[in-house]
């Protein structure tokens, strides 16, 4: 049996079940020691800022009664998801940067694929829920308290996690049908389903079907909610007579639009680009953008551009 040209042939499993005792080698970014040290410090700082920023947002929202509104309810959950998704990837990558041999056991790879796909898809739907919240607030302000009730917000957030769980289970089933050589090398710094499918020595038809279905039904549907929401929001803002009214209405959307642009743009570049190859430097940095940089930037984007968050922080600091 022949393996992919990206894999060193030291013996291949003839059945997906035999793959469970194998481990994967991770290529990472570079083998140059000085560069690895610099990347370690850069990514460590990024991760620390991510932890502090997202935990800070969660604590601030819980501790500030006037932030107990639908928008901040979604934001708190977004911060939790960002914290989890970053933690799934970054600590392992930091350890690998200090090691000569970068590897991950099959069980660890399965866990990473499952959790990363759960929280990745959950973030898509949370961003879609936040877009719908802004649509109702700007286009139907009188109906906002009724439409965005606590029950509705809870259902939207719960639905987001359920969509993420559905995606995670589907991709895990997809991985369980794959078979790998004993020295399979992933041209990335963590386990992702796309490069795993390309490494499989077994029939990948089911895996491609699951991946395509998840991208089409789950990813595209959440993207359409965001797109349609802003198709309605932008004309409504432009129809406001006063310049101050337009500025206030648009300012409530800029933070969300910034987050959506970075997250959707980088992830779509990676997964929907037909010429994308995760082994290329540009594509690896696109992956870094949505796996590590976006979770770090989200709390900064929402806090630096939000007067209510800044005011809540001042009140909390004065209480102490």
Mean pLDDT equals: 82
What percent of residues are in strands?
under 5%
Major sheet details: 3 strands, mixed
**What is the H-and-E element order?**
EHHEHHHEHHHHH
Please list the strands of the largest sheet in the order they lie side by side: 2-1-3
Count of discrete domains: 1
Could you say what the CATH topology is called? Rhopdopsin 7-helix transmembrane proteins
Structural class: mainly alpha
Shape, per Cα inertia axes = globular
Helical proportion, percent range: over 70%
Low-confidence residue ranges: 1-11, 274-281
Please report the first level of CATH classification, the CATH class: Mainly Alpha
Number of DSSP strand runs: 3
Number of helices: 10
| Rounded radius of gyration (Å) | 21 Å
Can you say what the CATH homologous superfamily is?
Answer: Rhodopsin 7-helix transmembrane proteins
N→C terminal distance: 67 Å
GO molecular function: G protein-coupled receptor activity; olfactory receptor activity
Family: Belongs to the G-protein coupled receptor 1 family.
Transmembrane segments: 39-60, 72-91, 103-127, 209-238, 285-304
InterPro entries: GPCR_Rhodpsn, GPCR_Rhodpsn_7TM, Olfact_rcpt
Kindly describe this structure.
Strands 2-1-3 form a 3-stranded mixed beta sheet. The longest helix is centred in the middle third of the chain and has 34 residues, at 106-139. α1 (33-63) runs antiparallel to α2, α1 packs parallel to α9 and α3 runs parallel beside α7 (205-238). With 320 residues, it is mostly helical. It has one domain (23-319): Rhopdopsin 7-helix transmembrane proteins, CATH 1.20.1070.10. Residues 1-11 and 274-281 have low confidence and may be disordered. The termini are far apart. It has helices at residues 33-63, 70-97, 106-139, 144-147, 150-176, 193-199, 205-238, 243-271, 281-304, 307-319; strands at residues 23-26, 103-105, 185-186. Belongs to the G-protein coupled receptor 1 family. Keywords: Cell membrane, G-protein coupled receptor, Glycoprotein, Membrane, Olfaction, Receptor, Sensory transduction, Transducer, Transmembrane, Transmembrane helix.
